[in-house]
Design a protein that fits this description.
The protein has strands at residues 2-3, 11-12, 15-18, 23-26, 37-40, 45-49, 61-65, 70-74, 89-93, 96-103, 108-116, 120-123, 137-141, 146-150, 162-165, 170-174, 186-187, 190-194, 199-203, 206-207, 217-221, 226-229. It is built from no helices and 22 strands. The strands form seven sheets. The protein has a four-stranded antiparallel sheet with strand order 5-6-7-8, with no helix packed on it. Strands 9-10-11-12 form a four-stranded antiparallel sheet, with no helix packed on it. Strands 13-14-15-16 form a four-stranded antiparallel sheet, with no helix packed on it. It is globular, with a radius of gyration of 17 Å. The chain has 230 residues and is mostly beta strands.
């Protein structure tokens, strides 16, 4: 999926697979949408939730089977899963995907959900939680066994907070950029965990400092709870 500014702003529904060398287009599944979230949930599966077509936010949950290369829609009862949204973040650990935040039709969210292929959606109730935000970034730190979330934007501000989730509770790890000791608030960056260095890597995004795309690369140490610009 995604959105292209060409062809009168088409919403896309194509699926492509990258094997490390080449891209291959495979059969279509879900209808066109942009701003959805997706995460790996083990056993060759990727779960995708939400997104928006040209008219409304979607509440659909889809599973991609990487072995058979087939999409299948998951039946979710009314109220048994997240509300429709875009700009939420998702990241997987083993057979569990975590979802946080995003933006609905009239408001933003700060709810936390988990998804497993066997159990479906579960709304979590952490004692502490980040404030509402959309277009943040999240990755799972498999060394320190926490989800790391950075940035995003609320109604007014780009956020420069770093939060970690241990499966039970959220903790604010870094509050603000701390005089250059962390990234400035931003949206639309890319984040992934690097198993070689044991660090969570953040690249790019639209930075609050300039309101232009950034080419900065940062690494987050999940043990020391510190950022280093690379």
């Amino acid at each position: 999926g995604g959105f292209t500014p060409f062809n009168n702003g088409a919403v896309l529904q194509d699926t492509w697979v990258w094997n490390g060398a080449t891209w291959t287009q495979v059969a279509n599944g879900p209808s066109g949408r942009y701003g959805a979230g997706a995460a790996y949930v083990g056993a060759y599966h990727v779960v995708m939730f939400g997104g928006k077509n040209t008219l409304y936010n979607m509440v659909e949950t889809w599973l991609w089977n990487g072995s058979t290369q087939v999409w299948s829609q998951v039946s979710v009862g009314n109220g048994a899963g997240p509300a429709g949204r875009t700009g939420h973040v998702m990241a997987g650990s083993g057979d569990t995907a975590l979802l946080f935040g995003g933006e609905g039709t009239n408001s933003q969210f700060n709810d936390t959900w988990s998804y497993t292929v066997s159990g479906g959606w579960s709304k979590l109730s952490p004692a502490n939680s980040p404030s509402v935000r959309s277009k943040a970034n999240m990755a799972y730190d498999s060394v320190n066994h926490v989800w790391v979330m950075f940035g995003g934007k609320n109604e007014y501000y780009y956020l420069d907070e770093t939060w970690v989730f241990n499966g039970t509770n959220w903790t604010l790890a870094v509050s603000g950029a701390q005089n250059g000791q962390g990234p400035a608030g931003r949206t639309g960056a890319q984040m992934a965990f690097d198993t070689t260095s044991g660090k969570t890597i953040l690249y790019g995004g639209i930075s609050a400092g300039t309101n232009y795309p950034s080419n900065a690369t940062w690494a987050f140490d999940g043990a020391a709870l510190t950022w280093t610009q690379l």
